[in-house]
Design brief:
The complex is a heterodimer of chains A (about 170) and B (about 300). Chain A has about 170 residues and is an alpha/beta fold. Helices cover about 15% and strands about 25% of the residues of chain A. Chain A has a seven-stranded mixed β-sheet. Chain A is globular and about 40 Å long. Chain B is mainly α and about 300 residues long. In chain B, helix 4 runs antiparallel to helix 5 and helix 5 crosses helix 6. The two termini of chain B are about 15 Å apart. Classes of the chains: A alpha/beta (about 170), B mainly alpha (about 300). The interface between A and B is medium-sized, with 24 and 26 residues.
Chain lengths: ~170, ~300
C-alpha cells in the first residue's frame, strides 16, 4: 500500500480518486462491489487497515450512511482519518449541501464540537462551479443514480501541535 | 402539518406526544411501512432517470440510494424550490430530543439493545424533518407514513441483513418459503423488553413498477383503460383480484401515479385524466362527509360530546 499517496473512502464503482488524485487507493466497505468495481481495498471508513501517517490526501465523495451526521460518528471518522494522514495533509469532501452526512454547516460545527488530541483542523468550503476540474465527473448516489454535488469542503490537518508548531503562522 | 416552517417548539410538541406501545401488532404499522416504500418509489418512477426503466429491487442499498437521491433532488418533483440553507442545528436538536424521549420511555435505558432502534428512528425522523424544512407541508414527503409508525408507539429499524433480522424473529425467513435474501424487513419494538415484531416486505413494489410501466405504455389516459382482469393476466400471477387491488393498484392510486374509473385503470396523461381522478375522489369525500354528519347527529341524540376525540 506504500505506493499510494492518497486514499478515497466509499469510492464505489467510480474512479474519482485515480482520475484527480493519483496515486490513490480506492476503498469501499461494500464487498458486493468486488465483482464489478476496481477497488484497491475493502474496509470500513471507521476502521481503516492502514498504519499511521500513510496518506497525504483523503477524499470522500457523496458519503451516505457514514460521515458527519452525528457528533459521535464524526469523531470516530476524524480520529481514524487523522491517524492515517500525515502532518500537513488534507481531507477533501465533495457533496450536496442537502446531504446530511456531509453538509458544510454540519462539518464545520462538528469540527468545533470535537477535540482531537494534538490535531488542528482548519475548515474551508467552496461552491463547485464550472471552474472546477471535476465539474463534468459523473457523481453517483450509493445505488448508482446521478447526482450533482455543489460543495467542496477541505479540512486542512496539522499534527504535532504541542511540539513547537507556530499556530499564528498557520 | 401546516405549511409554515417547523420550529423547535413545534417539533418538541410532536415528540412529547410520542409513546411506546404496550402491544406489538403488525397490523398497526404494516400498511405504513409499505406506504413509506411506495412513497419513496414514487420518486423513482416520476423523476426522469435512466435507472427508472431498469429492474428495481428494494434492498438496503437501493433504499438508502433513493433516500439520498430524494433529499438532494426533491426540487424535481416539488413545485417549490428548497431553500439554499437548511437549519441543520434544528435537525440536530430534534434528533437529540427524540433520542432522549425514547430512552426515557424505555425500561432498559442503558441497554445497547435499544441503540439500533433509537438511532434508526432518529434518522428517519430527521429525514422527515429535513424534507419538511425544504418543502413545508408537502404531501409528497415520503417519510410521513414512516413517522406514523413512530406516532403509533413503535420504534424501528429497516434492514435487508438476513442474519441481523433473524436475531429478532428466528423463523421469519422460513415462514415465507421464498428467497427473500435482499428484501427489506422492518423490525419494531414497543415498550416491552426483548419483544419484537418483524414484517418482511413482499415483492409488491416490483409489481407496482411493472404495472405502472404497463399502464404508462398501454393505457395512456382515461380513454384507454385496462381492466383489473387484464392486469392480472399481464402479471401472470395467482394473486386474487382483491389482492392485486390491495397491494398494487390502490397504493399506486394513493401515490397519485395512476387513475381509475368504472372500466379500469389508466396512466394519468392529460389534464382531462387528472380532472376525472380528482372529481371521482371529491365525490367519495363528499359521500363520506355526509356519513360523518349523520354520525354527528346521532352522537347528539346519544349525548356524546367530541365524537372523534381519542382516535
Amino acid at each position: 500500500m506504500t505506493f499510494f499517496k492518497n486514499i478515497e473512502l466509499g469510492a464505489g464503482c467510480g474512479n474519482f480518486g485515480k482520475l484527480f488524485f493519483s496515486p490513490c487507493c480506492l476503498t469501499d466497505k461494500n464487498k458486493v462491489l468486488r465483482i464489478a468495481c476496481h477497488l484497491d481495498c475493502f474496509c470500513d471508513a471507521y476502521e481503516l487497515p492502514f498504519t499511521k501517517n500513510t496518506f497525504r490526501i483523503a477524499i470522500i465523495c457523496n458519503p451516505y450512511g457514514y460521515g458527519f451526521s452525528t457528533r459521535e460518528e464524526a469523531e470516530i471518522l476524524l480520529n481514524e482519518l487523522t491517524r492515517v494522514l500525515t502532518d500537513d495533509s488534507r481531507i477533501i469532501i465533495i457533496g450536496s449541501s442537502r446531504n446530511k452526512y456531509c453538509t458544510s454547516k454540519r462539518i464545520e460545527k462538528r469540527i468545533h464540537q470535537i477535540s482531537l488530541q494534538g490535531i488542528n483542523i482548519r475548515f474551508a468550503v467552496k461552491d463547485i462551479d464550472s471552474a472546477f476540474p471535476y465539474m463534468d465527473y459523473p457523481f453517483l448516489t450509493t445505488d448508482g443514480r446521478k447526482t450533482n454535488p455543489n460543495k467542496e469542503i477541505t479540512l486542512y490537518v496539522r499534527k504535532q501541535f504541542n511540539t513547537g508548531y507556530d499556530q499564528e503562522n498557520y | 402539518m401546516s405549511e409554515n416552517n417547523l420550529t423547535l417548539a413545534m417539533i418538541r410538541k410532536i415528540i412529547d406526544r410520542l409513546f411506546l406501545s404496550e402491544r406489538l401488532r403488525i397490523s398497526d404499522y404494516k400498511e405504513d411501512f409499505y406506504s413509506h416504500l411506495t412513497s419513496l418509489l414514487r420518486f423513482h418512477l416520476t423523476v426522469p432517470d435512466e435507472q427508472s426503466h431498469q429492474e428495481f429491487q428494494f434492498n438496503k442499498n437501493t433504499y438508502m440510494g433513493l433516500e439520498q437521491f430524494i433529499l438532494e433532488n426533491s426540487d424535481m418533483v416539488e413545485e417549490t424550490k428548497a431553500p439554499d440553507d437548511i437549519d441543520w442545528d434544528l435537525a440536530d436538536d430534534a434528533k437529540d430530543i427524540l433520542k432522549d424521549k425514547i430512552k426515557s420511555l424505555s425500561e432498559e435505558e442503558k441497554s445497547d439493545d435499544l441503540k439500533p432502534f433509537i438511532e434508526s428512528s432518529a434518522n428517519i425522523f430527521e429525514n422527515w424533518l429535513i424534507y419538511d424544512l425544504m418543502h413545508p407541508g408537502s404531501v409528497y414527503n415520503p417519510w410521513i407514513p414512516a413517522i406514523n409508525i413512530l406516532q403509533k408507539g413503535y420504534v424501528y429499524f429497516i434492514s435487508d441483513d438476513k442474519d441481523r433480522v433473524s436475531q429478532y424473529q428466528k423463523k421469519i425467513y422460513h415462514k415465507t418459503g421464498r428467497d427473500t435474501h435482499s428484501n427489506l424487513a422492518i423490525v419494531t419494538r414497543g415498550s416491552k423488553k426483548r419483544k419484537f415484531s418483524v414484517v418482511l416486505a413482499d415483492n409488491r413494489h416490483n409489481l407496482q413498477i411493472s404495472v405502472y410501466q404497463y399502464l404508462k405504455e398501454y393505457a395512456p389516459g382515461s380513454d384507454h383503460v385496462i381492466s383489473l382482469g387484464e392486469i392480472k393476466d399481464f402479471l401472470e400471477t395467482d394473486m386474487s383480484r382483491q389482492t392485486i387491488r390491495t397491494k398494487i393498484t390502490s397504493p399506486l392510486k394513493k401515490a397519485g401515479l395512476i387513475g381509475s374509473n368504472s372500466k379500469g385503470f389508466f396512466y394519468i396523461a392529460t389534464p382531462k385524466d387528472l380532472k376525472q381522478c380528482y372529481t371521482a375522489h371529491l365525490e367519495k369525500v363528499r359521500r363520506l362527509q355526509g356519513t360523518l354528519k349523520i354520525y354527528e347527529k346521532q352522537a347528539k341524540v346519544l349525548g356524546i360530546r367530541n365524537l372523534g376525540e381519542g382516535f
